[in-house]
Design brief:
mainly alpha
């Protein structure tokens, strides 16, 4: 289990939708550690708590496979490769003033990731779409996301709508406490403002501020990396004045093109503001809430499925999440499949995954090799 999540940490390019697709292929299709329905329920539970969804799904799957030790190992080893790579980029950024270019690698990797997402969506749709209403929720989730709405709107809105429709005969009677509990979302800001001194200058007080700021973000943030960007800009550019807009965008870019969770943007910002110690403190702060939330919520997941209210809510959340995955795959596809070579890579990867069940890790490495070869040929 530890080896699997360490491997996924090195190859999980493409953002949360791709991470989820890779995990499904490994733990459902190849190893059969959980069923499709269990996987969907854990994905739904990951969407209901704040923090990085794919990292929380890894923590859930580790817990399901190996208990509390699995919870810690799966999450830590999934995060570790990205943290180390981001640290290397941050060191180069501070030393040379820019980040190394990885466009040639991503040129070949991205089309393969589109194929991985497509395979996952195909497999999950058969389990998630149990009724025409859930099929409509999938379509509505994708459409609302593409229309520019915050991902929380289709995710929670459609989940509540499905719950209400499926339990319409119960609405007039006593409402289930579990249904009300699902509506509670962590909110608010921590009441501290230590000023503008960066951790490197402020010592222990600055590091404490760095940790608490990222702890707050990890404990309250729902949504995509774009939502993360808004949180980071508010705290580090406007409130604390530790970063410029350009430094923030460079940090987010590094988090986007390295494998693993995009929340390792925190590692980059921590290094810029507090060097090696700051990087570790920032990373620990943003990911710690995910481990705590999963440990608390995991025992409740079977109860969520047992209640007619929360089961319908989970079904709606799962359907909406699949709609979001489809929309993200479409957006990524329009920017990743840009010429005949990338189109051929996507098609060949899809055939290898669906027809021959090739391990996606080899396909990602193969895509990187093709990207490098194409770049060398052009120069």
């Amino acid at each position: 289990m530890a080896a699997l999540f360490l491997k996924l940490g090195w190859i999980a390019f493409g953002g949360p939708a791709a991470h989820i697709a890779l995990m499904r292929q490994e733990v459902v299709a190849r190893r059969k550690w959980v069923t499709e329905q269990q996987f969907l329920d854990l994905l739904g539970a990951s969407n209901l708590i704040p923090g990085p969804t794919s990292t929380e799904l890894a923590i859930y799957l580790g817990y399901a496979r190996a208990g509390r030790a699995g919870l810690v190992l799966a999450g830590t080893l999934f995060i570790l490769p990205a943290m180390l790579l981001v640290l290397a980029f941050a060191w180069a950024y501070v030393r040379y003033g820019s980040t190394p270019q990885v466009a040639s690698l991503l040129y070949g990797i991205k089309p393969v990731i589109i194929a991985v997402i497509a395979q996952a969506v195909y497999g999950l749709l058969r389990t998630a779409v149990k009724t025409w209403r859930l099929g409509a929720a999938v379509a509505a989730g994708g459409a609302l996301y593409l229309a520019g709405l915050n991902p929380l709107v289709p995710l929670f809105g459609l989940a509540l709508l499905v719950m209400a429709v499926e339990n319409r005969t119960r609405i007039g009677s006593r409402a289930a406490p579990a249904a009300r509990a699902l509506l509670a979302m962590p909110a608010g800001r921590l009441a501290f403002d230590p000023g503008a001194a960066p951790p490197a200058a402020a010592g222990a007080a600055g590091l404490a501020t760095l940790f608490l700021t990222f702890l707050k973000i990890g404990a309250t943030l729902y949504g995509s990396g774009y939502v993360l960007l808004a949180f980071l800009r508010d705290d580090f550019v406007h409130r604390l004045r530790w970063l410029t807009d350009r430094e923030l965008l460079d940090a987010v870019a590094v988090g986007q093109f390295t494998p693993g969770p995009v929340f390792t943007t925190a590692t980059f910002i921590g290094y810029l503001t507090g060097r090696w110690t700051g990087a570790v403190v920032a990373t620990a702060g943003i990911f710690l809430p995910s481990f705590v939330f999963v440990a608390v919520v995991y025992p409740l997941v079977p109860r969520l499925r047992a209640s007619p209210w929360t089961a319908a809510f989970l079904d709606g959340a799962n359907a909406a999440a699949l709609g979001l995955m489809i929309a993200v795959a479409w957006q990524l596809g329009t920017t990743s499949i840009v010429d005949p070579l990338t189109a051929a890579l996507a098609v060949l990867a899809a055939v290898a995954l669906i027809r021959f069940r090739v391990n996606s890790a080899w396909l990602v490495l193969g895509g990187a090799a093709v990207g490098l070869a194409a770049s060398l040929a052009r120069h």
